[in-house]
């Protein structure tokens, strides 16, 4: 999920993300969005509940992972 806080909401959005346990990973990034987050959900219905907690303070763009051609791995050693 990409998250773009509304003006003046950056810290409140960050706090909300920290409190929601389904957010298992979140990076603060440059560019139009402020956060790129990974969530683990049991069902798509969970997504609606989580979005309702975040979208009152931020715009979101959600994608669903279909597969993982390259799993997380260590960078090559020099």
UniProtKB/TrEMBL annotation:
Domain Transcription regulator AsnC/Lrp ligand binding: 2-67
Name of a matching Pfam family: AsnC_trans_reg
Record protein name field: Transcription regulator AsnC
Xref: InterPro entries: Dimeric_a/b-barrel, Tscrpt_reg_AsnC/Lrp_C
Domain of life: Bacteria
